[in-house]
Amino acid sequence: MSNSIIKVRDVTTKFGNKVVHDKISIDIKEGEVYGILGGSGSGKTTLLREMIMLQRFKSGSIEVLGRRIGHLSHKQIAELKQNWSVLFQFGALYSSLNVIENVSIPLIEYTTLPKELIEEIALSKLKMAGLKKEATYLFPSELSGGMKKRAALARALAMDPKILFLDEPTSGLDPVGAENFDRLIRELASLLKLTVIIVTHDLHTIEHVLDRFCIIFEKKILFEGTLEEAKKFEHYAIKEFLKLERKEG
Amino acid sequence: MNNFEVIKENFKQCDIKISQRLDKDSIKAIYSKVKKIQNQKYSFVKIDCSDMTSLDYAGALMIADLSASLCENKASVVIMGMNQDSQSLLFFARKNLRQKTKVKLLKENIFISPIIKAGKYTMDSVGSFIFFLSFFGETVSKFLRITLTPWKFRYKATAVHIEKSGAQALPIVALTSFLVGLVIAYQGAEQLAKFGANIFIVDMVSISMFRELSPLIAAIVIAGRSASSYTAEIGTMKITEEIDAMRSMGFDPINFLVLPRIFALLIAMPLIVFFADIVGVFGGMIVAKSSLGISYTEFIIRARDVVAVKHILIGLFKAPFFGLLIATVGCFRGFQVTGSTESIGHYTTISVVNAIFWVIACNALISVVLTEIGV
Fold it and tell me: For the domain bounded by B4-95, which CATH number is listed?
C-alpha cells in the first residue's frame, strides 16, 4: 500500500470537561476512500473538522500530506489548503452567489484560466455532480436540500483537489440519488486519483464505496480496517452498527 | 514555453501538437490560439499528445470542448499519443461536457428601465403594505382572542423581553439622555446668562426633556436596539424553519413571538422614559450649578413651582405608542424575511430605519394634536 496521506496520532479532544476523543490514532492512505463511522455525537464530524483546521484539539498530532497541523506558517497553511476541499453537511453554499458562481469562485480566485473556460469547467462539474441544467443560474435559497448538496459537491470538485472531505454526503438524498452519489464518488476517486474521507453512517456507502474505515466508539477507535475484517471482528457494537444502521432516505 | 503548436495548417487540415503540461496554470497562454482553431471549418484535425507530460481536468475539458466544436463543424478529429490515464480523464471530461445554455440578457433600455424599476418598487411597497395590514390585523385579533383566555398569554416570555429590551437598555438610555440634558443646558445657559435670566434654565431643561426629548431619545435608542434584534431573531427562526415547526405543532407564532414582544415594550417604554426624564434633568442640574450657580435645591424648588405635571404625563403618554410601533415594525419585518441570510440583513436595516422614522412621525402627530386641543 502507498504512503499515509493523513496521520492522526493520539489526538485528544475536550469540550469543556467533556472528553470527545481520547487518544485516537488513524492512518489514511493515499488514493483510498476512507470512512469515519460512529454513532450520533461520537465526534465524527469533530475529527473531520480537526483535520481541516477548523477546530483545535487538546493534544496529539495530525499530519496532512506530511505537514504537521498546528505548526505551520500562514503561507504553508494557504498552500496546504489548496490540496483539499470540503463538502459540508448542509452544502454551505454562499447565499449571495448563484450556483454557477459558487462553483466558479475558487477557480476565479486561484487560477489564471480564461473566463470562458472557467464557465465551461463549472458547467461540467455541475453535470458531474448530477445537478439539473435548469438549476445552473438559481440561488441557493431556491434549491432543495439534495440539489444544494450536489451544487456543493461541484464546488468542492472545482479545483481538482487531492483530498476530498465529505461530511454525510448522502444524508438528505433520495435512495436512487444516494446510490448515484456513491457511484460518482467511486468513479471520481479512481479517475482523478482522489483521496476521499467520508463521515457517514449510510450502510450502502459503507458497503459499496469505502476501502477502509474506522469506527469511533466510546471516545476511542474501536476498529480500523476493511469491511471483511470488520465482519470477523467480534464486538457487539460493530455487529450492531453494521446491521442496524439503516440507509437514510 | 510553447506547449500548443500548430504544425501544419491549410484550409482543409490542421495538425496540432501538445507538449509538456496542459493544466490550470498553462492554459491561459494558449487559450486564444485554441479559440481561433475552434471556429475554423477544417475537414481533418490531428491532435498529437505524445509529448504531453501531464493533463488535468481543465486541460482535458478544453480538448474535449475543442474536438466537440470541430466535429460540429463537420471535421474528423484524431487524438493520438495519449497515455491511459489521460485518455480516461478525457473520456470523463467528454462525458461531462455541458453546452452552455444561452441566457438571454435583456438589454436595459435607459429610458424604460427607470419606469420598470419604479413600477416594481411601487408594487413591492403595495404588497408590503397589504402584508403589514394583514399582519397587524392578525395580531389584534389574536390579542382580542387571548383576552378571553388570559391564562394562555406568555407571561414568562413577556418578562424575559422586558428584561432584555427594557432593563438591559437602561445604561445606554441613561448615558444618551444625560448627555442631551447636559448639552441643552450648556447651550441655553450661555444665552440666558446674557439676559440675566439664569433661573429660566430650569423651565427650559425640564419642560423640553419631559415633554419631547426624553421620550424621543429613549424611543430612538430602543428602536436601534430592539427593533433590530426582533427582526433578526424572528428572521433567523423563519430561515431555520422554526416558525414552520411552531405552526405545525399548533403553536401560534403571533401568540408566542409577537404578543410578548409588543407587550414587553408597551410596559417597558413608559418606565424607560421616566428613567430618562430623571437622568436628563439631572444632566441639566449639573450644568446649572457649574455654569450658572443655581444650586440643586434651588433647581428643584423652581421646578416644583413652574413645571406643570402635565408635561411629564404627556411624555409618558407617548411612550406606549412608541413601544407599540417599535415592536410591531420589528416583528413584522422579521416575518418578511425569506430564504437567504442576506435577507435578514436587508430587513433588519429596513426595520430600524422604519422604526425610527415612525417614532418621529408619530411624535410629530401627537404634538400637533395636543397643541390643537390646547394641552
Answer: 3.30.750.24
Joined together, the cell numbers standing for residue B171 give 445604561
**Alpha-carbon span A197 to A51, nearest angstrom:** 10
Instruction: Tell whether B54 is within 8 A of chain A (Cβ).
Output: no
**DSSP code of B256?**
I
- Alpha-carbon gap, residue A214 to A238, rounded angstroms: 11
Q: Contact A191/B92, CB-based, under 8 Å?
A: yes
A37: cell is 463511522
What residue segments make up the domains of chain A, in order of their start? 91-160
Are the CB atoms for A209 and A18 separated by under 8 Å? Answer: no
Q: How far apart are CA B33 and CA B31, in angstroms?
A: 5
Three-state DSSP class for residue B29 = helix
- Report pLDDT for A243: 67
Of B62, B101, B339, Cβ closest to residue A133: B101
Give this complex's ipTM: 0.73
- Which residues, listed in sequence order, are joined to residue A7 by a DSSP beta bridge? A27, A63
Which chain A residues contact residue B25 at CB under 8 A? 111-112
The answer to whether the pTM exceeds 0.90 is: no
How do the domains of chain B map onto residue ranges?
Answer: 4-95, 107-152, 154-372
**Residues A170 and A200: beta-carbon distance below 8 Å:** yes
Look at residue B23 and give its three-state secondary structure: coil
A189 in Cβ contact with A31 (< 8 Å)? yes
* Contact state of B25 with A112 under an 8 Å Cβ cutoff: yes
Q: pLDDT tens across B182-223, in order?
A: 999 999 988 888 888 889 999 999 999 999 999 999 999 999
Compute the distance between CA of residue B209 and CA of residue B312 in angstroms, rounded to an integer.
9
Q: Residue B343 and residue B335: Cα distance in Å, rounded? A: 11
